[in-house]
Automatic annotation (TrEMBL):
Belongs to the ComF/GntX family. Keywords: Glycosyltransferase, Transferase. InterPro entries: ComF/GntX_DNA_util-trans, PRTase-like, PRTase_dom. The keyword Transferase applies. It comes from the Bacteria. Coiled coil: none annotated. This is Putative amidophosphoribosyltransferase. Residues 183-236 form the Phosphoribosyltransferase domain. GO terms for molecular function: glycosyltransferase activity. SUPFAM superfamilies: PRTase-like (SSF53271). It comes from Lapillicoccus jejuensis. The keyword Phosphoprotein does not apply.
Length: 242
């Protein structure tokens, strides 16, 4: 018999304690932290604000557009409650929001994906996977794909990269240059590919993913994202987030 089963230090007591904690602490809105209606991920106010932001899938793109970036389809701007939801889901462990975000991504996939195309998510770095304990984008894409053939985890990160959030357009491109590769060329060779990410900012990540797909003999025909940032110019000519 293991020590943990004797003294209660194993995972089962911990899971039980967390379940009990859920009964004490109220469930929080994924957008603002208020208490939502029972069984809902959002409070009524955030649900209204989300409906106002979400649109039918449309082509989006940064300016300037990085070389090799395929056409990108998005269903919302990265702003307001949409940005709050994505941060809570990806960085704060709110995996209960996966179903809601998958429903937002699904229309962009339907528009971007031609028959027979592979769905390939941008890979999670090993460091991020260790920090979060999972690969949230891969899970999200699996939910969004529905009955269609699911995602193919075909790309990997080949070297250490810096956190992109604090970098400008040029630095993002340099940070990701040749940082991705196919896990196996056989997965992608000769196949049309739709790349998927959660947010389009400068386009550097999707452009690098498209380069890696082409290097393996695949054809990146389009990309789909949940949200795209609204870009504007700053005095030195760099692109910046609002």
């Amino acid at each position: 018999m293991s020590r943990s089963s004797v003294d209660g230090s194993g995972p089962r007591p911990l899971l039980g304690a967390l379940a009990a904690l859920d009964l004490v602490l109220p469930h929080r809105c994924g957008g603002c932290g208020a208490v939502p209606p029972p069984g809902r991920p959002l409070c009524r106010g955030c649900a209204v604000r989300l409906r106002a932001l979400v649109h039918t899938p449309r082509l989006v793109g940064p300016h300037p557009r990085p070389t090799g970036l395929p056409p990108v389809h998005a269903t919302a701007p990265y702003a307001g409650v949409v940005a709050a939801l994505l941060r809570a889901w990806k960085d704060d462990g709110r995996r209960d929001l996966t179903g809601l975000l998958a429903a937002l991504l699904r229309p962009a996939l339907a528009v971007a994906r031609p028959p027979g195309a592979l769905l390939v998510p941008v890979p999670t770095s090993p460091a991020a996977r260790r920090r979060r304990g999972d690969a949230p984008l891969l899970d999200l894409l699996g939910r969004a794909a529905g009955a269609e053939p699911g995602p193919v985890d075909a790309l990997r990160v080949t070297r250490r990269v810096a956190d992109q959030s604090a970098l400008g357009r040029r630095d993002r491109a340099a940070n990701l240059d040749h940082a991705l590769a196919a896990r196996s060329p056989d997965l992608l060779a000769g196949r049309p590919v739709v790349l998927v990410d959660d947010v389009l900012t400068t386009g550097a990540t999707l452009a690098e993913a498209a380069r890696a797909v082409r290097a393996a003999g695949g054809h990146p025909v389009a990309a789909a994202v949940l949200a795209a940032t609204r870009r504007h110019r700053v005095p030195d000519g760099e692109e910046a987030d609002p």
